[in-house]
């Protein structure tokens, strides 16, 4: 119509421009909106408060908050609608902090506020609380809750609290901030309980992981004659997922699966077509409950599949550890003509990781083959992500870094990291973990130095990663720095952090600081004791390791396989054969722990090096049938050292039965035969 007016030479007036700008905002046509703005400026109409306000609203709906701000600042006069439009533009542009700052400015200028003003300000708090990609996520929630509580008080004082829009938005905020009691107070003050309000209450309970309360609210809603809509059903199904996570505790011990099935049946009776979100949530619930066939049935009966539903099915397979099916599902999605989104790539990369984890206990050659195959799939996913313009996305990129790291292709992980559009803490940690997992501690420490310049305050995961790198390369100075950084950042040196610090100090040969950290713990967990025991063992102080073990029994009366692995390693480093045998027996007889293969390997290495083959034969007699190649290789090495050809032949036969293609047993056996032949020749010459 506007183009037709131009062709006919009809001059638009103020009201025409307002209508046209509203239309541009409704269809998010920024180009036409900017063209109208230029036309308005050429006619000196931009200072008109109605046109200016509509321009702000249009730019806000088009996601151009900077342009909206420019219009706002240039307006000579502003009314309440103008302020609300600017607040809304900030919220629509994802700029929660700016919106709340503007609201503060309204208060400072004693501006009148209406229910819409408060509603938008509460929406800004919601936006701030939901910023998951922020490094200050928890702090943002605290700030959002504090401001939201103030806005709640203002709404009550101004008699706006019964407004359902304000109430529902407050419920959403309190849910995100895990403040159930305040949310329940809001709900009790609402003037009428419509389905939207009930849905907001149920969603709040789900957000706060209170599945039982959510389902009680769903039941009460229906008892009061309010029929659920499809969003209510989604929230109730999500409550079932929460219950499944909590352990299926609900009235009369009904399981979350049974409740989910009942909700599914009710929804089918109530609605002609189930929407995308209901179906996707059903797929997720059935997958969590291990009913993958039911998840597939929900998916298959759908007439049309959206990317969201494909992602739901992909997640279902990943949830059940079915990596191959998930990747096959990804291929079907692509073949259907749909384009994978960020979520699709993340789930597909998780499927790759599942395939790699399945091969962790396989032989070296089998693991190599699996890594080669998964690496090829990962590269194909990377190529697809590039086509979709998502390879530089920080979330997808982080998934690619993790996948490449697990495949052992660190250079591709580095290239992916360098190509990210931005680097958040999760991406930094993924790259650090990649270096640590590949034994490249020096590179991890170099990255840490660069990271310190970018982000002075490190989070818990980062500190753990760098400590592991320090442990690998024996960097005591960096360990001291990280210990200080952890305390400065407010991380208590307890639990896992304490165990990692003790382990790192021990690996750096600083048993004094390791013991100091242990002594400073109020209630040391067994992992912390284990780390300190291992530290003393690594420097050859087996006696101190044993004393620490005895002390740990007085404190926590607990021991794990890791405890005895550390004690055996300490005995091995110190060459304490009798003590090592005692530790092994103590583990089996006192703690009833079945020895792991690596513990048998340490014991046979200790006894074998001493040349005590009578004791070695006793160990062999008790060793499990599925003992690893490393056990027989260790025994074969000891036989070579001491020239025991009979036991050596036994070890050789077991080794080649396990892996006939491994060359090392043949080399060791050849050396043993050569030694035996040389000994026989020498003995014959002596006669």
Automatic annotation (TrEMBL):
A molecular function (GO) term: RNA binding
InterPro entries: PPR_At4g14850-like_plant (IPR046960), PPR_rpt (IPR002885), TPR-like_helical_dom_sf (IPR011990)
Keywords from the UniProt entry: Repeat
PPR repeat copies, ranges: 79-113, 194-228, 306-340, 560-590
rRNA-binding in keyword set: no
GO annotation, biological process: RNA modification; system development
Pfam families the UniProt entry points to: PPR, PPR_2
Name of the molecule in the record: Pentatricopeptide repeat-containing protein
